[in-house]
Design goal:
Length: 497
């Protein structure tokens, strides 16, 4: 036993998310915000801390954190890292600090559920099932300090460990927890394609697809996610300045986006508690600036299919913490520059919109640099992301349902008659139904189908053009049935009438 080790030790016993926490036997809890919790733990002894954990979201994470503290009343000290930093990573920490400083009031969450709302400029929710009296008791019983660096946090924890052991402030408390259980419909497990004009529109369609047919699986992080495997998202027309709907239903804002884009485009300097950024992996991690290599590659060979950037390091297998974004391909086809990115694991609710906008900014940067350094004047083509595991964590299922209810119908009801498979002109000729397929642009006839059986015809068309839009094939089925009825009754058939 060391001189600073307390006589009485308590084992921290988390009721929620235990695999996401580093537990010890002291009386001090440490919240590291977005900083890697192991960066703090490796400099402490287990008897010096009760628990060390990260806090990503004030709307979803604070309630679990408070529940665990209520279940472990021997925790008498709380150190909150990054609570004073004015950046997006400090949001959860700042909100938690405000809970202890300012308290809370009754309110409603962004999904319409009754809850406690932290008195803070950062929105934070606490489950209404936890009585106000228990929350007030917790606020009065724990001494809270903010830390501006890992070194500061270590110093505070060690100073608390030198104090005499304090008796628990009460008995362990546990309260009911409401759960959201998805209603899953049958669907394809592997290989999905979703297309939209903007990132915002595409995101809503992605969330709807996952919530409708995604398989529910355990995450390995004390929870569940709903998942589609190998999801390809295609964004065709995202504007240069990015589209933020009004009111904005995306999980990011322009201030956050500006910082996030810099983490992709720039060789970001070392940030305490962060292993790397995507920008580091692209600019210097392998001793090469892969973004510059890609630009030069395409200037020298505009039709090259080998303009590839890799963020995967073979050492990631051993060291852990491998990047979710793995590879990026840039292609120029018919004077149009497209970017395709593969992600091994993708949080589609909280992360994909930022991922997509950051990648679109990289795509725009490469296109602009090629124009500035050469005679090429390329158009911006589509952005494509391929997510091997496209998932939504269980703590956002309720938010996802709310998003779908508010936005999905309006997006899908917007009329869009364009189909890359072309147009289909239907008429009655020589006592048969005749269908001419034309190109979507010039209107050139590329195929002709004829017969009297509408079901056989629609199957033949869909077999010959497997990429036809589902709503387009449904439209063809209805029109072909109308044509067949006209053929049988002798009435005139005019398409779309």
């Amino acid at each position: 036993m060391t001189a600073t080790e307390p006589v009485t030790q308590f084992q921290y016993k988390p009721q929620y998310k235990p695999n996401q926490l580093i537990c010890g036997m002291g009386q001090t809890a440490v919240v590291t915000g977005w900083s890697v919790k192991s960066a703090v733990a490796k400099q402490l002894h287990p008897h010096e801390y009760a628990v060390i954990g990260q806090l990503y979201s004030p709307t979803r994470g604070i309630s679990f954190l408070i529940r665990n503290l209520l279940a472990n009343p021997h925790v008498r000290f709380l150190v909150i890292l990054n609570a004073t930093k004015e950046d997006r990573n400090a949001g959860g920490s700042e909100c938690l600090l405000d809970f202890f400083r300012n308290g809370f009031v009754g309110g409603v969450s962004d999904t319409g559920r009754d809850c406690w709302v932290v008195k803070s400029k950062i929105t934070g929710y606490i489950d209404i099932e936890i009585p106000a009296s228990a929350l007030e008791k917790l606020r009065q019983s724990i001494e809270v300090q903010s830390a501006t660096s890992i070194a500061d946090a270590i110093s505070l924890v060690k100073s608390y460990a030198q104090r005499a052991t304090v008796e628990p402030w009460g008995n362990p408390l546990q309260f009911p927890l409401s759960e959201v259980i998805p209603n899953v419909l049958p669907g394809t497990r592997y290989g999905h394609r979703i297309e939209g004009k903007t990132i915002a529109e595409t995101w809503v369609k992605i969330i709807h697809r996952i919530k409708t047919t995604g398989t529910i699986r355990p995450t390995g992080y004390d929870g569940q996610w709903q998942e589609l495997i190998d999801l390809m998202a295609v964004v065709t027309d995202e504007p240069k300045g990015f589209y933020f709907p009004d009111p904005n239903y995306l999980p990011i804002d322009r201030n956050f986006l500006e910082e996030y884009i810099s983490q992709i485009l720039d060789d970001s300097p070392y940030r305490e508690g962060v292993k790397y950024t995507y920008g580091q992996r692209l600019r210097s991690w392998f001793g090469r600036d892969q973004i510059q290599q890609t630009i030069q590659k395409l200037i020298g060979e505009i039709d090259a299919a080998s303009a590839v950037m890799s963020l995967w390091d073979v050492k990631d297998h051993e060291q852990g913490g491998s990047p979710c974004l793995n590879h990026i391909w840039v292609r120029v086809v018919e004077n149009e520059l497209s970017l395709t990115a593969t992600l091994r694991s993708n949080d589609m609710f909280a992360a994909w919109p930022a991922n997509a906008m950051g990648l679109r900014a990289l795509q725009q940067h490469i296109r602009d640099e090629i124009q500035a350094r050469s005679d090429y004047n390329l158009k911006m083509g589509p952005l494509i992301t391929i997510s091997q595991s496209a998932h939504i964590y269980d703590d956002t299922w309720e938010n996802a349902d709310s998003l779908i209810q508010q936005q999905y119908s309006a997006i899908c009801q917007a009329k869009n008659y364009y189909d890359p498979a072309g147009n289909f002109l239907i008429e009655i000729a020589e006592n048969k139904i005749v269908v001419n397929q034309t190109t979507p642009g010039s209107g050139e006839i590329v195929a002709c189908y004829s017969g009297k059986d509408p079901l056989k015809l629609v199957r033949e068309i869909c077999s010959a053009s497997p990429a036809i839009r589902p709503d387009h094939s449904g439209y063809l089925g209805m029109e072909l049935q109308k044509a067949a009825d006209s053929l049988r009754t002798g009435k005139q058939y005019i398409q779309d009438r």
